[in-house]
Every structure is written in C-alpha cells, then in structure tokens.
Design goal:
By secondary structure, this protein is mainly α. It contains 6 helices and 3 strands, in the order H-E-E-E-H-H-H-H-H. A hairpin with a 5-residue loop joins strand 1 and strand 2. The chain is elongated, with a radius of gyration of 28 Å.
C-alpha cells in the first residue's frame, strides 16, 4: 500500500494496521482462578468458543507466533505454493524452464532475464521520489550521464558560486554516545 504525504487518513489507517496486536484485547481475559480465557473469533466444528489455559501456556502460544530472526515472512499458499501442481500455469517461467534463452546480444533491452541485477540510480530515484531523470522534461529525449566532477576543490567552487554550502553540516553524536558521555 502506498500513501501520499498529504493523505493523513490513509497514513493513519496504515499505521493502525501495521501496529495492531496479534490478538484483540476484548478477546483475552483472566478468570477468577487466574487462568487466561481466549474467546475464539468463530466457534470450532466441535462447538468450542473459548480456550482456557495457564498464563505460561498462553505466553508459549504467543511466542510461537513470533517469526524466527532472518526468516522470510512472505509465504505463498494455493496455486502459488512451491510444490503446487498448478504453479507452472500461474507463475511466469524463467529461461531455464525448458525454453532455450536467446544470446544476450540478440535479446531486447527489456528482456527480463538479461537485465541488470540492480536498478539504476535514475530508476531508484523515480521509484522512491517520483523524479523522472531518464527523460528530459523539456524535450522528452533520453538523459545520460556525460561527466562527473570528483575533485573536491572544483565541487566547492561550483557550490559557492551557486550560493550553496560547500561543506556538509557537522554530524551530531548518536544518542547512545551522548548518554554515555554524560
């Protein structure tokens, strides 16, 4: 989901969604015996509507919901699952899947399996900041990098001529370092 900078209602809805707890507070209660009572959203087939467990058992079940570190959180189910019989019909096939790929020099520039592994700086800026840096805004022609200024004195002279600061602002210490120094 994407929200614009001015879309405060959309941003609030997104924040509420990503910060919601695993269980609604209204569904979890403690009974008089000190046991945790969890109300199910829908009754099970056998008619069970509540689960009663010790606080330790409840914590164990909650801890089981937390994914392990460095674990992929995107899972596919149904026809997109890794071993689904119909997966080949819905997932695009790569060049290794029975079709011989064309040599790179005969392939079009838009060919997915011969494209660059990383996105170019101009595509990254377009994706993140919605800045079009591949085509000229006036003439529509393709923009390309023709020179880069790398010498610091030349860069400083150009920036000073434009009335911009030539030096980066001083970095303030990290919060942890400031607390340790005090």
């Amino acid at each position: 989901m994407r929200c614009g900078a001015e879309d405060r209602q959309g941003l609030e809805q997104l924040c509420r969604y990503i910060t919601r707890p695993a269980l609604a507070n209204e569904r979890v209660q403690c009974n008089a015996a000190g046991r945790v009572v969890l109300k199910l959203k829908t009754p099970w087939r056998d008619g069970t509507t509540h689960l009663v467990m010790s606080p330790l058992e409840f914590m164990q079940r909650l801890a089981a919901l937390v994914p392990r570190a460095r674990l992929h959180l995107i899972r596919f189910h149904g026809v997109r699952a890794p071993n689904a019989k119909l997966r080949a019909l819905v997932v695009p096939q790569g060049p290794d899947d029975g079709v011989k790929a064309a040599p790179p020099d005969m392939c079009e520039a838009s060919c997915a399996h011969h494209g660059p592994v990383r996105l170019s700086w101009s595509r990254l800026l377009k994706r993140v900041f919605d800045l079009e840096l591949e085509h000229c805004p006036s003439w529509g022609g393709e923009l390309k990098l023709i020179a880069a200024i790398l010498e610091q004195p030349v860069i400083e002279k150009i920036l000073e001529h434009l009335g911009l600061q030539a030096r980066a602002p001083r970095r303030s210490p990290a919060r942890g370092q400031a607390l340790r120094a005090a």
